[in-house]
Amino acid sequence: MDKALWISWYNLPDDGRDAYLAWLHGTYIPAMLERRGFLWAAHYASVEKTRIVSTHPEFITPTTQDAAVPGGDRYILLFAAEDANVFGAPVPTALHGGLPAADRNMLAMRSGERVNIMVEVSRVEGPAAQHYKGGMALAPCIQLGSYNCGYQDEEELLGWYAQWRMAAMRTLPGCIRTRMLASVSGWAKHAILYEFESDDIRNKCYPAHEAQRPDMQAWSSRMVKKLAHAPGSPNLAMRIWPPASH
To answer: Residue 53 to residues 50, 57, 147, 200, 205: CA-CA distances in angstroms?
Structure first.
């Protein structure tokens, strides 16, 4: 099972972006996938916030005010493994430090890079899982929130996800999977990863699910105010590698 994720959020300059993407998709990712224990990779471009349909409180969430937290969020690169030790021998910085100079120069184009190694705490499948042909591969559309929470509120956070949010994803049209994640390393201690068939169906169905349960709206509104999100989080993002098939 793909229980561990290496997640990198970052930005890119306009100049050289196409060359970087060609290298990442054609050279870097294939080489990483040859490493022992790497199961899959997926690369995403974040959707502009103005294109996200939301009547939901989580898109009006507090963002960390810690200036030391890197602010990249336009691209999200994920690698999966069976467990976090795959990403610990060597750790990402050592792995990158051992690459040829040409590859290190490409990696240096990333700005505001923020990295987490996370493990899956729980997973639910949605209605779209039964006809999703991608197997373990991450869906064409994801919504990824990464954040911290005061330890005093973490028990309630667990209850909210277990009793409401993740339970609701089991019946949400267009939802393939939802994974709750906890950090092994990196700024964000918590993350939630939703997989959707498309951004259109996400924008149609996801914002409405809370409105159908007004008894849960107050809990959701109270809970999300207790979270300090990473810059740009939550991100709605579309997969650009591997290319989505139509």
So the answer is: 8, 12, 21, 9, 10
Distance of CA 222 to the CA centre of its chain: 23
* Rounded Cα–Cα distance for residues 159 and 163 (Å): 6
**Residue in the block written with tokens 């993407």:** 21
* Residue 246 belongs to some domain of the structure: no
pLDDT band at 4 (very low <50, low <70, confident <90, very high): very high
Region class of 67: left (phi > 0), else alpha (psi between -120 and 50), else beta = alpha
Q: What is the pLDDT of residue 234?
A: 92
Domain that holds residue 133: 4-241
Reference 161, options 246, 42, 23, 58; nearest CA is 58
Q: How confident is the model at residue 212 (pLDDT cuts 50, 70, 90)?
A: confident
Q: Annotate 126-137 with b (16+ C-beta within 10 A) or e (fewer).
A: bebeeebebeeb
Residue 61 has pLDDT above 50, yes or no: yes
- pLDDT at 208 (0 to 100): 79
The residue behind tokens 């373990």 is 136
Mean of pLDDT values over 213-233 = 88
Q: Is residue 70 part of a domain?
A: yes
What is the total residue count of the chain?
246
- pLDDT (mean) for 38-61: 79
- Angstrom distance (rounded) from CA 181 to CA 58: 17
**Total count of domains within the chain:** 1
Whether residue 172 is contained in a domain is answered as yes
For residue 229, the domain's CATH number is 3.30.70.100
